[in-house]
Amino acid sequence: NAGVTQTPKFRVLKTGQSMTLLCAQDMNHEYMYWYRQDPGMGLRLIHYSVGEGTTAKGEVPDGYNVSRLKKQNFLLGLESAAPSQTSVYFCASSYGLNGNTIYFGEGSWLTVV
Amino acid sequence: AQSVTQLGSHVSVSEGALVLLRCNYSSSVPPYLFWYVQYPNQGLQLLLKYTSAATLVKGINGFEAEFKKSETSFHLTKPSAHMSDAAEYFCAVSDVRTGTASKLTFGTGTRLQVTL
Questions:
Q1: Does A82 touch chain B (CB under 8 A)?
Q2: Cβ-proximal residues to B76 (8 Å cutoff; 6+ apart), any chain
Q3: Strand positions, DSSP E, chain B
Q4: Is the backbone of residue A41 left (phi > 0), alpha (psi -120 to 50) or beta?
Q5: Which one in A24, A51, B26, B36 has a CA-CA gap of 20 to 30 Å to A34?
Q6: Contact B103 A106 (CB under 8 A)
Q7: Rounded distance, CA A10 to CA A12, Å?
Q8: Does any CB of chain B come closer than 8 Å to the CB of residue A12?
Q9: Residue B51: closest C-alpha in chain A
Q10: CA B8 to chain centroid
Q11: B42·A101 Cβ contact <8 A
């Protein structure tokens, strides 16, 4: 079982460039999430989705867009990358509502120069 | 709004010693609580969770945590540390309102170092 898979694992962007992070899960989970991890700040929720075709803002949504066209995929887009978006990005998914275990991918390291 | 405070960004213990990682939460109602572990360059893995059943929760790798409502705490313990326990540990709280997604609010993490 692959679980939650993120691509790419590493990427260097120039300021102003755009890119998309892809997340795929094979557990038939309804809920998917994008978090960013920064030193000394833990993980912060960027956007999440409660089902195919639906998305919602999390704690730090500015500068990011997301799409959930298929149940198994959750895309995170940066339209115009900024150095402040240098971070490690984690995708996650869960089967049900609050209280259910959230499963994380292995992370995507993004550097914006 | 709910929040989590982890006391101590770095904890160092000797192999075989007790591990105690502290977590206090703030929430208007008793929340769901989680401990996750992150090994270097990897994602987060669930250690254990409290979802209003037994207050003493046992997890993987010999870890356990006790929910104490009076102290608003959910400290993580392990009787005897092993070198393989060296990692970063995150406490997290989840909203318990019916019908909400499992959005987690994380603490800032505690890096556990295990020495010989």
A1: no
A2: B19, B20, B21, B23, B35, B47, B48, B63, B64, B65, B89, B91
A3: 3-7, 10-14, 19-26, 32-38, 44-50, 56-58, 64-68, 73-78, 87-94, 104-106, 110-115
A4: alpha
A5: B26
A6: no
A7: 7
A8: no
A9: A99
A10: 13
A11: no
How long a stretch of residues is chain B? 116
Q: Does A102 touch chain B (CB under 8 A)?
A: yes
pLDDT digits 0-9 by tens, B43-74: 899 999 998 778 899 999 999 999 998 999 99
Q: What distance in Å separates the CA atoms of residue A69 and residue A55, rounded to the nearest whole number?
A: 10
- Nearest CB to B103: which of A41, A58, A90? A58
Which of A43, A100, A101 to substitute to test the interface with B, most B CBs within 10 Å? A43
Higher pLDDT, A76 or A98: A76
**Interface A-B: count of C-beta contacts within 8 A:** 73
Position B35 confidence tier, pLDDT thresholds 50, 70, 90: very high
Assign A90 to helix, strand or coil: strand
